[in-house]
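pinging the channel bc i need a second pair of eyes. not urgent but kinda urgent?? the chain im working w is below, pasted from the shared doc
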Amino acid sequence: MPISAELVKELRRLTGAPLMDCKKALEKTGGDIQQAMNVLREKGIAVAAKRSGKEAREGIIVSYIHHSGKVGVLLELNCETDFVARTEEFRQLAHDLAMQVAAMAPTYISREDVPPEVLEQEKEVLRKWAESQGKPPKAVEKMVEGRLENFYSTVCLLEQPFIKDEEKKVKDVIAEAMGKIGEKIAVGRFTRYEIGEG
């Protein structure tokens, strides 16, 4: 079935993916836009995984001040090339991530950044809580693991539900952007300021 240019443009408008990728996805799905979006989403994740070994040495630093004037964020978002760092899509992602940090106050970027002593302390607190519920040892460990996931989704930026779409985690939003842009994207660091906090 021949794919019309209008259909390709519509898929590009919806996904932001390159035109050739849109055309291939539509050809693969017989012109079904919803299925083509899924194909592109899967490809985006595949692109993100392929690019994870690349170095992201370019990027931008963005600032976000909440309208109340009581919370502010500086965030460094990295990519592979200066060209991508100047695109509107990349800048919008950086702005959204800075808003995320302002709203959700993460402490770390990823679960790998949580210091071992902090993790052990959290596990110990959770273990004591689970044991106080009178659960057997196997159940205690399962409860600790489940609550640890909640801990990560609170303190780690990449594990948090994205404020603009809580069905996705921040890491999924970054992976989708990597798929569209075709470069590695990584949060370098962030600092959050709040009036009254030391």
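so The first strand starts at residue 58 and ends at 65. and The domain at 115-154 is CATH 1.10.286 (GTP Cyclohydrolase I; Chain A, domain 1). — does that match what u expected or am i reading it wrong
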